[in-house]
Structures are given as structure tokens and as C-alpha cells.
Amino acid sequence: MTPSQSDLPKGNRPRSIWTRRFHQLGSPPFFYTLVGKLLPWVGTLCALCFAAGLYSGLILAPTDYQQGESYRIIYIHVPAAWMSMFVYLILAISGGIGLIWRMKLAQIVARASAPIGAAYTFLALLTGSLWGKPMWGTWWIWDARLTSELVLLFLYLGYMALQAAIDDRRTAARAGAVLALVGVINLPIIHFSVEWWSTLHQGPTVTKFDRPSIATSMLIPLLLMAIAFQLHYLVALFARVRAEILDSERRSAWVTKMVAAS
Amino acid sequence: MGGYALFVWPAYAATVLVLSLGVVLPLRRHRQLTRELELMAIQHDQGQIT
User: Fold this and answer.
1) Do A76 and B11 lie within an 8 Å CB cutoff?
2) How many A-B residue pairs are in contact by the CB < 8 A criterion?
3) Residue A206 has pLDDT above 90, yes or no
4) For the residues A248-257, what does the mean pLDDT come to?
5) What residue ranges do the domains of chain B occupy?
6) Judged by CB atoms within 8 Å, which residues 23-42 of B form the interface with A?
7) Can you tell me whether residue A125 is helix, strand or coil?
8) Which residue of chain B has the CA closest to A252?
């Protein structure tokens, strides 16, 4: 009689192909090689999306009847702002996975994501300021949307400072993950700030349950730029993760072997 | 840019700069690390021979 799966000791249970795939993906040497192969392809796709997005956004899209040409900042401001929140979510999720399952790769992804997310947040604030000056008459105002986005930048910088201050990578990853998870509360505050408080910032035009209140000829370049920014995150993340893995695994056997073979 | 060139172009220029740095800097760091590790391996080998 063959024993049922649950009778076998835990380590001997046959694992499904997906479980094995997942574990393989989590191994730094495998991920290092995979990402190295993917990088040029994702990079090319990203460049193409940027070219299409910039061409359609700056040349094909019509002028706004209220905001004139200044509205074209939307094509970088909105994707940057979306990415600033998306990357924070990734930071918190991968930080959480690293915290609970001690998965090394998740910790590396979190550590590598922070400066990229900080860059998007900085760009969202900067381009917003450059848009606010001609439209609102001011570079900055301490209202809910702008302030909560600034808090997001400080959360990223705090996370990065924590990583830099703690020498032991595993301790740094754990401390950072706790900070990142607590900071998640800021994400719904950013998103709903324009509804909860009175603000100069305009309400959502795309991310709402109704139909987007933006003309299709203006929406398509925005979506292209959003995809381009997503791909840029992948490219920047892959490049950073590769350097990060090589640095933290420099004394491991597979790195020594790889260096010797080159 | 209909009188808004002073706002639109700096926004785009800053974006291009920051996004390119986000890719170029880690790629460069990776290349430097690889070189450093190769150099260390060579020195290690030579140390074993002599």
C-alpha cells in the first residue's frame, strides 16, 4: 500500500512543479542569470514604449481647451505618481515576504526597489510643482495630496537610511520591512486625499469606477507612458538586483565559479 | 508649447535624466563589481602559484 502524501515526513512529500519553480526563482544564482537574459529584451520594449508615448503625447495629442499645452506634463506626472505608490506596495509586499519566510530574494527586491520608488516620488513632486505654478499660481501648497506624497518620499528616504545604517543585511531587511508595512497606511491616504479634504489638486480622471473623464486621444498616450514607466521599473529593478546579488553573494561558490569561467 | 515651454521642458528633461540614471548607475556598479571580482580571482590564483 502506498502511503498517502500526508503520511510522509514533511521533507519527503513530492512537491508540485510549481512549488519547485517558485523555489528555483527564489534562488539568487537562478534569478541572477534569468534577469541578465531578460534585461536587454525588457529594455528594448521599454524604449519603444517611451518613444511611442512621447510621440503621441507631445506631437499627436491635441491641446487642452482649459490648460493649453501645460497639461502635457500629465504624461510624466501621472505615471510617476502611480509608480511612486505601486513601487511602495511592492516594497511592502516583498519586505513582508522577506520578513515572514526569510526569503533572501524578496529582501533583495525590497532593498533594490526603494531608491527607484524614491526617484518616481521625487519626479511626481517636481513635475507637479512645474505644473502647479502656471495652473494654480504656486509651486507648492501644504494640502492633503501634496503633503501625503511628500510623506511618501520621506518613507522611502527613511527606509534607505535604515538600510544604510544597519550593517547586517538580514537585520536591515527586517527593520526596513516593518517600516515599509507600517507606511502602507499612507497609500489610501494619498489616493483618497483629493476626495476627503478640499484641495487644489484635481480629482482622479482615470482611476475611478466611472468612465475616465479624459478624451481617448489624450488617454492613449497616458496609458503608453504608464506602460513605459512600468517597464522602466522592471529594467531599473533588474539592473539593481543583479548588482545587489553579486555584491551580497560575492563569497559564495557560484559567484567564484562564474568569475573564474569569464 | 503655447507659452508653457519653461514649465513643460524642464519637467521632461528632469524625468529623462532621473530615469536614465536609474538604469545607468546600477549597470555601471555591476560592471565595476564584476571587474573587481575578476581582479581578486586573478590575484588569488597568482598567490597560489608562487
Assistant:
1) yes
2) 86
3) no
4) 88
5) 1-50
6) 23, 26-27, 29-30, 33-34, 37-38, 41
7) helix
8) B37
pLDDT digits (tens, 9 = 90+) for A48-79: 999 999 999 999 988 888 888 889 999 999 99
Nearest to A181 by CA among A102, A89, A106, A109: A89
Contact between A104 and A40 under an 8 Å Cβ cutoff? The reply is no
Which neighbouring-strand residues pair with A68? A64
Do the Cβ atoms of A239 and B26 come within 8 Å? yes
Q: Is residue A166 a contact partner of residue A179, using CB atoms and an 8 Å limit?
A: no
Strand partners, A64: A68
Q: Between the CA of residue A58 and those of A3, A8, A129, A229, what are the distances in Å? A: 67, 63, 19, 16
Continuous H helices in A137-168: 144-165
CB-CB under 8 Å, A246 with B30 = yes
Interface of A with B (CB under 8 A): 43, 63, 68-70, 72-73, 76-77, 80, 115-116, 119, 122-123, 126-127, 130-131, 133-134, 232, 235-236, 239-240, 242-243, 246-247, 250, 255-256, 259-260, 262
Give the per-residue pLDDT at A204: 79
Q: Whole-model pTM?
A: 0.89
Taking each helix axis as running N to C, give the angle between helix A28-55 and helix A104-136, from 0 to 180 degrees, rounded to the nearest 10: 20
DSSP code of A202?
A: -
Residue A188 CA, distance from chain mean position: 16
Residue A8 has pLDDT above 80, yes or no: no
Residue B22 near residue A231 (C-beta atoms within 8 A):
no
Residue of B nearest to A257 (CA): B41
Give the pLDDT band of residue A39 (cuts 50, 70, 90).
very high
The complex scores an ipTM of 0.89
